[in-house]
Write a structure and sequence with these properties.
The protein is an alpha/beta fold and 290 residues long. The chain has a domain of 185 residues. The protein has twelve helices and five strands. Strands 1-2-3-4-5 form a five-stranded mixed beta sheet, sandwiched between helices. Helix 3 packs across helix 5 and helix 11 packs antiparallel against helix 12. The radius of gyration is 19 Å and the shape is globular. The model has no long low-confidence stretch (mean pLDDT 93).
């Protein structure tokens, strides 16, 4: 008998959650909310003003944002559900993240969701972070975390002839120039970075690394870590993360890590006793852990 893949298990889980927990009907697909329910914010946890924060960042009426407010099977809404509560308690956020970062964070200064840095201070394009965190390092210097949140997603196909296609393959593009001069990668793996499997991870890693003062003289940041937050069952990212780390030169391995939903939630539960936060963490477990 064929093994059921993670995406199908997650699909069934989200349909069940919609029917039995939210108790609402389906929209365009079984894993979509109706437009009316999407505009009520039912895709978000009902607490910590998460829906209000999401509306402050993205207009739910715009076509390109509809997935965030309606599609329960994709990850667009998940950064809000995971990280808005941490904005309300930066000390708690520090304690959770330090468990995965060997205790380097002294204080967290800011957490932003769906954040695109000033192009002139980075890669000169609109590449953005799902979650962007600025922190003070225990040495007194400053650092950035760039977090990409995934759920059922895997790689995405590059459209031939698109602007992205041209930029990725042009030898004089900022991506290739920076890749060749940054010292991040072992030369024999540079070509593979542009493939569908690794391209998005590569670009997001470059985005953060381009923002530290080693690579941008006006920057106040000395450290950057690119983080993939994903469910354990997503075998694409489970396999990609160690492979991608093997492409990095010695000394840069710690600039890219993976954290599973399961480990994140277990750590967060161990570090908090407040009922409001425990209810939120239980929701995340019930909602996303298949």
């Amino acid at each position: 008998m064929a093994t059921i893949g993670f995406k199908e298990l997650a699909r069934r889980h989200q349909i069940k959650f919609r029917k039995e927990v939210l108790k609402v009907g389906e929209g365009a697909y079984e894993t979509h909310l109706t437009e009316a329910d999407a505009l009520k914010g039912l895709i978000f946890y009902n607490g910590f003003n998460i829906f209000e924060v999401a509306k402050g960042r993205l207009n739910p009426h715009l076509e390109q944002n509809k997935a965030c407010f309606a599609n329960m099977l994709r990850s667009e809404h998940i950064p809000f559900n995971f990280f808005v509560p941490l904005i309300n308690d930066l000390g708690y956020a520090k304690d959770v993240l330090n468990k995965f970062l060997c205790g380097v964070i002294d204080t967290i200064n800011v957490i932003k969701i769906e954040y695109a840095p000033d192009p002139e201070l980075a890669l000169k394009d609109k590449t953005s972070f799902d979650v962007y965190i600025e922190y003070k390092h225990f040495t007194g210097t400053y650092g950035i975390l760039g977090i990409e949140v995934k759920y059922t997603e895997k790689e995405y196909k590059l459209i031939e002839g698109s602007k992205e296609d041209r930029e990725i393959h042009a030898e004089d593009s900022i991506y290739n120039l920076f890749t060749n001069t940054s010292g991040l990668y072992k030369k024999e793996f540079v070509k593979i970075l542009k493939t569908d499997e690794y391209r998005q991870v590569w670009r997001n890693h470059l985005l953060g690394m381009s923002m530290i003062n080693k690579n941008h003289a006006d920057s106040r940041f000395d450290h950057f870590t690119s983080i993939i937050l994903y469910p354990e069952g997503n075998d694409h990212f489970r396999n990609l993360i160690p492979a991608y780390r093997s492409f990095l030169n010695q000394g840069y391995e710690s600039s890219f890590i993976g954290i599973t939903y399961e480990k994140f939630l277990m750590t967060a539960q161990e570090l908090i006793a407040e009922p409001e936060y425990l209810r939120w963490l239980q929701y995340l477990e019930d909602r996303y852990i298949v």
